[in-house]
Amino acid sequence: MRSSAVFLIALFIALAACAAQPAPAFFGAAPGALLETKSRLARGDPSLALAIEKLKLDAHRALEVHPPSVMDKTSLPPSGDKHDYLSVGPYFWPDPASSNGLPYIRHDGRVNPHTRGGAFDHRSIGRMGGLVETLALAYYFTGNEAYAQCAALCLRAWFLDPATRMNPNFNYAQAVPGITEGRGTGIIEARGIAQAADAAQLLAGSPAWTAQSDAALKVWLNSFLDWLLTSKNGRAEAAARNNHGTFYDALVVRLALVLGKTKLARAVAEAAKEKRIAAPILPDGRQPRELARTASLGYCRFNTEALFELATLAQYTAVDLWHYQTPDGRSMRKALDFLLPFIGPGAKPWPYQQIRRINAADFAPLLRQAALAYGDPVFEALLHKLPGADSSRFQLLCPSVGPQN
Fold first, then answer.
1. What would the DSSP string read from start to end of 133-171?
2. pTM over 0.90, yes/no
3. Within its chain, how far is the Cα of 117 from the centroid?
4. Do the beta carbons of residue 332 and residue 284 sit within 8 Å?
């Protein structure tokens, strides 16, 4: 009896501590989601057990990783400054009919492995964003200072240290040898920047990430956001009407929110109703620009992911993209509904071109977000048929309705 009383008192103290905490400044999850997860973890919610253990395992492994930087690449950008980001379009290959392979030619959907290797920055920027988010989330949920210290090292290496920091531009992203030194399409690779910048806010209060470091990061982010909004490549990507344009909007909105530029974030989110939903989605949910690709199911899922990310971010600006619908029925939900028959066990054959294997588990986060946004049990029911869902990070960022214990 006494042990039960002690347990209840300890549980009450833990819950009170969670309730007293301010909401973390992290826009990659819906408002209140992280607080809900932390509260449920304190109560021992078994539905989150596998996901939190997987996060801690990932964070522990991240402690052993050398912080990535743009100085890791072996190629030199056209500027001659290794601090400039450099990548090559993934679907471009040397021309076998040319003596020097130039100009490169495009094979949609076929990734040239050289573009993903150590000669360029694509792999490093993705690793950096993933490391910072993993470590910052693990720090937020566990309070382990080792995670905060490692996240801070990664942030300083990429953004702040004069010896390793990246210049705040994407002038040479997704170059095409023999054709162009960089394209607006390369901006889609900057998602790791927004991921890290957002997750850095979870380090608030840790001695590893001081107010001075955070202020210096925001100076860098302001410069990069200005480049996104004013450069030729940035304007080109803003005008894109496929997944590139959707991810561009999500990038701008997320950075604007981190920087406290709510008016800018709200304007981009509001414009997305027409630019990213009404224009590119048909009334039956088809996405013609993505269906035209050789990996069309993958790209339909990819653009839907971008739309859902944008809708989550828009919640912080009081713009509702989840329920926006045109008079003839175009909506984000229709885009997902169109894909449902082709997901999971017993899925119907995809009637369009898809030259790469699809991982059904990649749809799981979208199904959880849809379940919460629309309250339709069909999404959660399909989610539970997909492999690996219980240990996936979306369980922490987008917890199911109500504790499951």
1. HHHHHHHHHH--HHHHHHHHHHHIIIII-TTTPPPS--T
2. yes
3. 21
4. no
